[in-house]
Specification:
134 residues; HIT family, subunit A; 5-stranded antiparallel β-sheet; 19% strand
């Protein structure tokens, strides 16, 4: 059975997409730690991030950097934190989380409340910033 992220890539599950290339995709986490919390994935389903070949891993990180720059232009924060956990969904992914302090990256804290309409607004704004980078 394919992961929920593969279902998103295939268009079988909706998402708030912020960026896409032929190999990678980024979309808002629907259960975010902070507003703007974004997931970056390879389109090819690989369970563990360190099972990606060198080209895919480096490409994923470079793509994530562009997404992080776009998120930072839209969401007020000191930095974009990067978290790789890999246990919750069996598909390699990177969490990009706007942060002002280290505690903002704790997955044991309560999640941010983001209105459905705001997800759409954020996705559009981040996507616009991503597209303007080059």
């Amino acid at each position: 059975m394919s992961s929920i992220f593969s279902q998103i890539v295939n268009g079988d599950m909706p998402c708030f997409k912020v960026a896409e290339s032929d190999q990678f995709m980024a979309f808002l986490d629907i259960n975010p730690l902070k507003e703007g919390h974004t997931l970056v994935i390879p389109k090819k389903e690989v369970d563990y991030i360190f099972d990606l070949d060198d080209s895919a891993l480096s490409g994923l990180m470079l793509f994530a950097r562009r997404v992080a720059v776009a998120v930072e232009k839209v969401v007020s924060c000191k930095r974009i934190g990067v978290v790789v956990m890999g246990l919750e969904v069996p598909h390699a992914h990177i969490h990009l989380i706007p942060m002002d302090r280290e505690e903002d990256l704790s997955f044991s804290r309560s999640r941010a409340k983001v209105a459905p309409q705001r997800f759409g607004e954020l996705a559009a704004l981040i996507s616009e910033q991503f597209d303007s980078l080059d």
